[in-house]
Amino acid sequence: MSSAHGTTWSSNCLVTKFPLLAALAFLLAAVLPALAAGELLIESGDADTARVEAPCLFTRAYSVTNTAAVGRDFTESVLLPPGWRNVTADSLFSLASGARDVRLLCIAIPGDAAPGTYLLRYLVHDRNDMRRGAESILHLLVLPVMKLDMTVAESPRWVMAGEEYAVRLELFNHSNVHCPVTLQAKNTSGTAVRLSEQHIEMKPG
Known about the structure:
With 205 residues, the chain is mainly beta. The chain contains 2 helices and 13 strands. It has helices at residues 11-17, 19-37; strands at residues 40-43, 49-53, 56-66, 72-79, 85-86, 91-95, 100-109, 116-126, 129-143, 148-154, 168-173, 179-182, 199-202. Helix 1 crosses helix 2 (19-37). The N and C termini lie far apart (74 Å).
């Protein structure tokens, strides 16, 4: 049990009796995370913005350097929009003090990714202390793409001259944007052709 003359180190006591010490402690608490983050360096030779057309596989190389005084084990990950997939998957790797490694990132971007700018965050953390790490941010611009495809789904194998027949067509929108479509049909024999629909609103994908 402490005596009546013992010292109790409460936060109020620290601030009241030792204002300079309290200020130094606050400054140290703010600086330490920055020092920890500075022990890891992530670089990419490419620009921090990129343009792509969906669907595609987007690849990017990162140079990761351990600037700490000791070797460390790291885990890497990437934060992606919903529906996007990291082909290379998250992995673990080790770096000695001062060592550098080139990490390859491969992202599968789906065809229905809407046009716009997306934020990709590549993160590397110390496996034993997730507070110590670094990240690289990439702004990825997905461009609008318009691509339509039509196939013959059903048609008669043969017809008699002068006989009316039907052909069923299927229209696919492989675009990542809304497509208003106007259909026209022409018969090489010159006979009349009727369409069940002429104007169709196609949703993306």
